[in-house]
Amino acid sequence: MSDLKAVIIQCGNEEYALPVETVVSIERLEQVNPIPHLPDYMLGLMRIRKELVPILDFEQILYGRSAKGHAEARVVLVKTKNLYIGLLVLDAKEILDIPEGSMSSTGLLAYSKTKYFITVANLENRIITVVDPEILSQTLAGMDEIDEYVKAQVVQSQ
């Protein structure tokens, strides 16, 4: 692993990092069309730059409470192999260069439920957990159905 350029987001009182190459844009939460029978963390679909994007409440995924309604809440649009997903977070703060020497994955062995945490950056005055959006999109329950639903919506609208 080399140095990491990352977008720093906040959920709960913690900071998380998304590799900058996976982040497409940072948006305000707009009109979300709910989809019935999907997990609580799935808010629905939002149109971003003419794409239908599933919005996942990252605060709900991590802490069981919603980021919806928070004034600073942002949707971080990330690209995975199969689809774009929007992560609703309390705040998208900055872009940061994280030195390779500050990253360690030893503490992550306890996180079997969060395989998408790939490393932890231990910086001088902050600890930042790095999230892999690809692994996140593959490990969350219901993501297969979301992927199929989005593809079906795109086909219908053509």
TrEMBL record:
<feature type="domain" description="CheW-like">
    <location>
        <begin position="3"/>
        <end position="142"/>
    </location>
</feature>
<dbReference type="GO" id="GO:0007165">
    <property type="term" value="P:signal transduction"/>
</dbReference>
<dbReference type="InterPro" id="IPR036061">
    <property type="entry name" value="CheW-like_dom_sf"/>
</dbReference>
<dbReference type="InterPro" id="IPR039315">
    <property type="entry name" value="CheW"/>
</dbReference>
<dbReference type="GO" id="GO:0006935">
    <property type="term" value="P:chemotaxis"/>
</dbReference>
<dbReference type="InterPro" id="IPR002545">
    <property type="entry name" value="CheW-lke_dom"/>
</dbReference>
<dbReference type="GO" id="GO:0005829">
    <property type="term" value="C:cytosol"/>
</dbReference>
<dbReference type="Pfam" id="PF01584">
    <property type="entry name" value="CheW"/>
</dbReference>
<protein>
    <submittedName>
        <fullName>Purine-binding chemotaxis protein CheW</fullName>
    </submittedName>
</protein>
